[in-house]
Amino acid sequence: MGDDFYSRVSDGGDGMKTKEPLSGKYTGFPWGHVIGYMGSILLTLVALWLAVNPPFSQGGIITILLVLAVLQILIQLIFFMHITESRGPAFHTLAIVLGFLFTFAVVAGSIWIMTFNSQVQ
Amino acid sequence: MEATEKTISDQKPQEHGMEEEEKYVLGFWLFLASDLVLFASLFATYLVLRTHTDGGPTEAQLFEIPVFMLETFLLLTSSYTCGLAMHALKNGHARRLIGWIAVTVLLGLAFVGIEINEFITYSSEGATMQRSAFLSAFYALVGTHGLHVSLGIVWLISVAIQLMRKSIQPTTARKFINAGLYWHFLDVVWVMIFTVVYLMGVMG
């Protein structure tokens, strides 16, 4: 959330009665959201096409699908959750990055450890 | 000096400003990070067990591309309309804000309806949660996400009711910001389910 947004709501954002924008800055067309939406639809269709008609080996496709998923997540975080806009230190970014790090460690670690399954049985 | 006194006396003691509300938003990000770890454990379980079908139905036999693509587009679109609601909030348009929340809720309901129908279809084909380790992990992961979406719908409706009664003020704005963040977060989790469960599933 941007600076101006919070300060403008504090100024009294009684939009229901006045129907006036709190400031002229955000009155424009929501380009960020439209770009984010188009991008996410495009990435979804590319991912589906790659999964249905794999042009090369499966290992390579899975890597590309994971890269596309990361791009999708970045679109959500940047265009919709506005993670880059904050007043003061970005503690929320630190928290969510740590969450993703834990996710990667738990998921990748589980897959890795299971590759030794045949050796211990 | 006079101006300063006026400003202080104008403030109502029981209401706090947006700066105070921001702490709740930071707290909510901390919740999202820990909720992500919950999904991490479910994803790890699924990826370990996905091949353990016990002679029962496999991913490729079960998943239908039109169904999960429709679910994906419904959720992506609802995330976009939730973003438009945020845009309306930034502009102070309370009516548009409530309108976009309503659209988001309807898309969310459609998503949950199709997912429930998907689960019923699988179960009628014999692919119940008890059938194999793969199916247990599948229902646990996708079902937990579906439960989150259902909770998000209830939350968005309650925020919309508050907005109708109290319009946009620091407290209601913060409540919508958190509910909106939750909704986008559910789309983040769905992107991972779409890729890891469905796309890799139909690839075989």
Characterize the structure shown.
The complex is a heterodimer of chains A (121) and B (204). By secondary structure, chain A is mainly α. Chain A folds into 2 domains: 3-88, no CATH class; 90-121. Chain A has 6 helices and no strands. Chain A has helices spanning 3-10, 15-18, 31-52, 58-80, 91-114, 117-120. The model of chain A is unreliable at 10-24 (pLDDT under 50). Chain B is built from 7 helices and no strands. Chain B is mainly α. Chain B starts with a helix and ends with a helix. Chain B has a single domain (30-47, 65-203), classed as Up-down Bundle (Four Helix Bundle (Hemerythrin (Met), subunit A)). Chain B has helices at residues 2-10, 18-49, 59-62, 65-91, 94-124, 133-166, 170-203. At the A-B interface, helix 1, helix 2, helix 3, helix 4 and helix 5 of A face helix 2, helix 4, helix 5 and helix 7 of B.
Measure the end-to-end span of chain A: 53 Å
The total beta strand count of chain B reads 0
The average pLDDT value of chain B, as a whole number, equals 91
Please give the number of β-strands of chain A: 0
Transmembrane segments (chain A): 31-52, 64-84, 90-114
GO molecular function (chain A): cytochrome bo3 ubiquinol oxidase activity; proton transmembrane transporter activity
Protein name (chain A): Cytochrome o ubiquinol oxidase operon protein cyoD
GO biological process, one term (chain A): aerobic electron transport chain
Quick structural gist:
Chain A: The chain crosses the membrane at residues 31-52, 64-84, 90-114. Chain A: It comes from Thermoflavimicrobium dichotomicum. The complex is a heterodimer of chains A (121) and B (204). With 121 residues, chain A is mostly helical.
Keywords:
heterodimer, A: 121 residues, mainly alpha, 2 domains, 6 helices, 70% helix, flat, B: 204 residues, Four Helix Bundle (Hemerythrin (Met), subunit A), 7 helices, 84% helix, disordered N terminus
Task: Please give the structural blueprint.
The complex is a heterodimer of chains A (121) and B (204).
Chain A lengths: L2 H8 L4 H4 L12 H22 L5 H23 L10 H24 L2 H4 L1
Helix pairs in contact in A: 3-4
Chain B lengths: L1 H9 L7 H32 L9 H4 L2 H27 L2 H31 L8 H34 L3 H34 L1
